[in-house]
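Why do we bother with holo predictions? Because pocket geometry can differ from the apo form. Keep that in mind while you read this record for 2'-O-acetyl adenosine-5-diphosphoribose.
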Amino acid sequence: MEHIVVLTGAGMSAESGIATFRDSGGMWEQYRVEEVATPEGFARNPQLVLDFYNARRKAAFDAKPNKGHIGLAEMEKDYKISIITQNVDNLHERAGSTNVVHLHGELDKVRSTADPSLIYTLTPDNCEIRLGDKCEKGSQLRPHIVWFGEAVPMIEEAVDIVRTADILVVIGTSLNVYPAAGLLNYVKSGTPIFLIDPNEVKSYRDDIHFIKKGASEGVEELRRLLN
Ligand code: OAD
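The structure, written out:
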């Protein structure tokens, strides 16, 4: 079975109603990254950061997988599929994908600020954390999200996965954020690379097959091309 590795970003979930970051109207026009997505921001104003992620968690729980997520899950019938996502929603899993690595954390999980191994899963009817919500050792809980300036613990596993790709597919990422964007460097030479995005994406590689479509139509087109 051919191994298809799929690197996804915010555009993958755009058609599910979740805002991207850098498009016009995106998240980073409404919020300052330093305030809501850095350890310093959390130290300065934890309430603001908890509110930000509580709102995003609710939106993610309310969203449904789109045809792109579902198409990728269906492809498991014919290929070994590994998904490496920068997204913190769980729409790939809810569409049925069984092999998903989250590079930037997971919205439905929270963890202890004192002991990162203490991780708890929230549910749609209990999806907020507040100041004063503590782990079993008595420390404040925080979102299980990789903030800017923090290490990306899953990157080595992701590199190993990309190294074994027969085909790499990139969907809905502006390739602005490292180390995720650097994963394209690790494919074996000659590996076909497809990139699905309705907008131009600047990449340092010139061997990319560009499918200029949104995620749902793009995944459909990809499946036609691979057939
Ligand atoms: P960006 O917002 O930077 O890029 C989103 C990409 O999705 C752009 O290239 C859009 O053109 C594309 N897009 C928009 N609509 C689409 C659609 N319907 N179908 C497919 N693609 C579409 O988001 P990311 O590259 O994911 O990290 O951003 C990377 C990281 O930066 C995020 O994980 C987040 C952010 O700050 C953290 O918060 C740590």
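DSSP finds nine helices and nine strands in the chain.
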